[in-house]
Amino acid sequence: MKRTTGQNRSITRTWRPATQAVRGGTWRSEQGETSEAIFVSSGYSYDDAETVAARFAGEQAGMTYSRLQNPTVQMLEERIALMEGAEACRAQATGMAAMTTALLCQLKTGDHVVAARAAFGSCRWLTDNLLPKFGIETTTIDARDNDAWKAAIRPNTKVFFFETPANPTMDIVDLAYVCGLARENGITSVVDNAFATSALQRPLEFGADVVAYSATKMMDGQGRVLAGAVCGSQAFIDEVLLPFQRNTGPNLSPFNAWVILKALETLDLRAKRQSENALIVGKFLEGRVPKMLHPGLPSHPQHNLAMRQMSACGPIFSFILDGGRKQAMALLNAIELIDISNNIGDSRSLMTHPSSTTHSGLSEDVRADMGVEEGMLRINIGLEDPADLIDDLDQALKVVGL
Q1: Nearest-angstrom CA–CA distance, 26 and 33
Q2: Which residue of 233, 323, 329, 387 shows the fewest CB atoms closer than 10 Å?
Q3: For the chain, where do the domains classified as CATH 3.90.1150.10 start and end?
Q4: Is the pTM of this model over 0.85?
């Protein structure tokens, strides 16, 4: 295996993101294939015993075992790192494997985490249930409030953990302020960027230390595979994260890595078109539903901050109906084109009721604290003609009396 002509770090880092998404991290075998190859192998053979010893000692580059390296997975890691503007990346089996690894690799008993209260249900489970089992305390705050971050810091605070935009409330966190505050206090900021990806927002440019992903979402964009990724400095990835990953094994399969590699080639196009479609549909819904949560609309209380941090609003937003769960489910049952699904980032439009799906594992009190109301619906706008999506939503809203 060799890198494509020009595939050295000094050159590829000068490429713009759209170019990196297509060509970054490409390796080619002696066959000269244009599409990245899938290397399905759990292990590797060596010319002599000295070679394998040198590789395991870290004295010689090369593959040793697919829990540590795989050519297809490593191509994906290089590409994501380039797109993110990060020094290094490690792929993970799922998005939640990425979040878990990004936290547990650097925390120990007696440490303290400050986390956003509005988050994906499983991320809240990590901070509320898993971390305490290891003697790690968490303070959850309203992440929109800059003063709350500062007030929550303790002498043993090690990590700030948050999403922006948040799932499903669409809360926006001031990246520059919060990440800057973290660095001033020797705290590692871990940002879940799954709703935007590097195509729409690059947290490292605002001072973030670690960026984590569910690549299942917009990176794949077509609802095919599970995948995750963690990006950061070379030192963090090699010295902090890798020892945890190599010994616990949340590894991505070569096939899933290959699917994400091919999907990244169109990420920029999809993210921008879906953002445009989401804005069109959002403007329609704003006049029909009681409450909209769409950072791309001027009515969103953090619209200006979102647009400073993001190049576009993204494909996902939420809205709230006054009729609670009954009316929300009636609307879901009335849609004909849009699919009922708890996934996001897909090229197909999807809608779900967070309280009974993605956040159902949380108590009613926690959901209320997060702002996940019974009448809330979260929608992912896809690549369909927005006029068709509006027609579908229009007829469904009439069914439920709106």
Answers
A1: 10
A2: 387
A3: 268-399
A4: yes
Q: For tokens 């080619």, name the residue.
A: 28
Q: Where in the chain is the domain with CATH 3.40.640.10?
A: 2-264
The CATH code of domain 2-264 reads 3.40.640.10
Residue tagged 């290959």 (tokens): 258
Under 8 Å between Cβ of 188 and 106: yes
Find the radius of gyration of the CA atoms of the chain. Answer: 22
Helix (H) or strand (E) holding 125: helix 121-125
Phi, psi of 359 (to 5 degrees): -120, 15
pLDDT averaged per 10 residues, the chain (length 402): 54 82 86 88 92 90 89 96 96 98 98 97 96 98 98 98 98 98 98 97 98 97 97 98 96 97 97 98 97 97 98 97 98 98 96 97 93 97 98 98 96
Fold of 268-399: Aspartate Aminotransferase, domain 1 (3.90.1150)
337 and 388 in contact (C-beta within 8 Å)?
yes
Place of tokens 């709230």: 320
Burial of 54 (0-12, 13-18, 19+ CB in 10 A): middle
114 and 143 Cβ atoms separated by less than 8 Å: no
Query: What are the backbone angles phi and psi of residue 222, rounded to the nearest 5°?
Result: -135, 20
Instruction: Count the neighbouring beta carbons within 10 Å of the beta carbon of residue 49.
Output: 8
